[in-house]
Design brief:
Blueprint: H1 6-29, H2 31-40, H3 46-76, H4 79-96, H5 105-127, H6 130-133, H7 139-166, H8 170-191, H9 202-221, H10 224-253, H11 259-279, H12 281-286, H13 289-309, H14 313-339, H15 347-360, H16 364-376, H17 380-397, H18 411-420
Length: about 425
């Protein structure tokens, strides 16, 4: 069957292309280093502390408000409008980065907070368009297309940024990201399905959304295996997110990477992450996602411990490539394991909770990294602390039944879920 809604699908993918400029330049590579080392100063880890606070607080706001705003969007019929508001919030804050200079710690913190809330909060509404624009049999492919286009957006925006940061035009770099995000997100606001008024007021819509989310949580919490899996996922994904947030800062502060080296490092990690996910695609099915997750977590423990001892840039390049291959693998395997527990026709609500847990996992790790780094005046003890996230997640996942080669979750567990549903 041919694809319908091609304009909507292309515009949806282009939005991922657009916002990946923020993910790469602002969230992962260039702005974190600029804020921690130039705006704040990171000799004693104070920059790590403030950046960890910004990331953790922004994600906490998104997690706490998502069920409420999701209900308003779904039942009040203003989803596209909210996506536009969050996108404009993010773009405006990023453009305002060009006004920052050394010593503007609080101003930078507030702008970073607003930008990240705009970015991550908007994704809640962006993701919800997928079931509407793509037929069920095409949703996996459309999702993958968005993922791939997003990687391309990250790489292109970083390549554009290289000559700007090389010439010292950091203020123009932030404006470039704002323009990149704004221009390539325009098709989404033109072609994605229009809002349809549902006739519910704001309070009633938010109440229905909260009830819907709470009922799904109760279903999941009643399943021991699913509950244990999500606890393990929350912990080890927190470690993964913390590594993503602080890897560039560690490379710049501890090992002396300059901005152009950081850009090339990030591009290589993106390529190895994508390669790792493809290479491990078959082993996830043939060996089972649980075994692949366990192997990946052992790899991440080794990477974290190795990073504690690393002394040179060349050593860190090797570690980063290994970590990148494990990044794509663990995310693909975790999602595959989770699908084993989802009752038929409950995919959307269960993945909604999965997404919320994933966002929650960006709260504690960055905060802990920042506090340990500032307390010890060194990032190395903070790296070891993050290794414990992977180790704890590895231990908990061993107690989750299922996840073997091409088998379903324990029948009794699935029956329990279906009874509650």
């Amino acid at each position: 069957m041919p694809l319908k809604n091609k304009k909507e699908i292309i515009s949806w993918c282009l939005f991922d292309f657009a916002n990946s400029s923020y993910s790469a330049v602002i969230s992962a590579v260039i702005f974190p280093v600029y804020y921690t080392t130039t705006i704040v100063g990171n000799e004693s880890g104070l920059g790590d502390l403030w950046w960890g606070r910004a990331v953790s607080l922004s994600m906490a706001v998104v997690v706490l408000t998502s069920p409420l705003l999701g209900g308003i969007a779904d039942f009040g019929g203003i989803r596209k409008r909210l996506l536009l508001i969050y996108t404009l919030l993010c773009i405006s804050a990023v453009a305002a980065f060009s006004l920052l200079h050394k010593g503007m710690v609080i101003e930078g913190f507030i702008l970073a907070l607003i930008a990240n809330i705009g970015m991550e909060g908007g994704l809640v509404f962006y993701n919800s368009f997928l079931p509407e624009i793509a037929e069920r049999e095409y949703q996996g492919r459309v999702s993958a297309w968005g993922f791939a286009v997003g990687y391309a957006g990250s790489i292109l925006s970083l390549l554009i940024a290289i000559p700007l940061i090389g010439s010292g035009y950091l203020d123009l770099t932030w404006l470039m990201v704002a323009i990149f995000f704004g221009v390539f997100s325009l098709p989404a606001f033109i072609f994605l399905p229009k809002d349809i008024k549902q006739g519910f007021g704001v309070m009633h819509s938010s109440s229905k959304g909260m009830d819907y989310t709470w009922n799904t949580f109760k279903k999941i919490w009643s399943s021991k295996e699913l509950r244990n899996f999500l606890i393990a996922y929350l912990i080890f994904e927190d470690g993964v997110n913390t590594v993503i947030v602080f890897s560039s800062i560690f490379a710049a502060t501890t090992l002396g990477f300059d901005s152009q080296e950081l850009v090339m490092l990030y591009i290589v990690v993106q390529i190895t992450a994508l390669t790792g996910a493809f290479i491990m695609a078959k082993p996830i099915d043939f060996r089972g996602p649980k075994r692949v997750i366990s192997f990946s977590l052992l790899l991440w423990v080794a990477v974290s411990v190795s990073a504690f001892f690393v002394q040179s840039k060349s050593q860190f390049w090797i570690i980063a490539v290994i970590a990148g291959s494990g990044l794509g693998t663990i995310q693909a395997a975790a999602r595959a394991f989770f699908t084993r527990f989802i009752p038929h026709e409950h995919e959307s609500e269960y993945f909604g909770v999965y997404s919320m847990v994933g966002k929650s996992s960006a709260i504690f790790g960055p905060l802990i990294f920042g506090y340990i780094s500032s307390s010890f005046g060194s990032q190395r003890p903070a790296i070891l602390a993050i290794a414990s996230f992977f180790l704890i997640g590895l231990i908990i996942i061993q107690f989750v039944k299922g996840g073997g080669p091409n088998i379903d979750p324990p029948k009794q567990e699935l029956q329990n879920i279906l009874k509650i549903s």
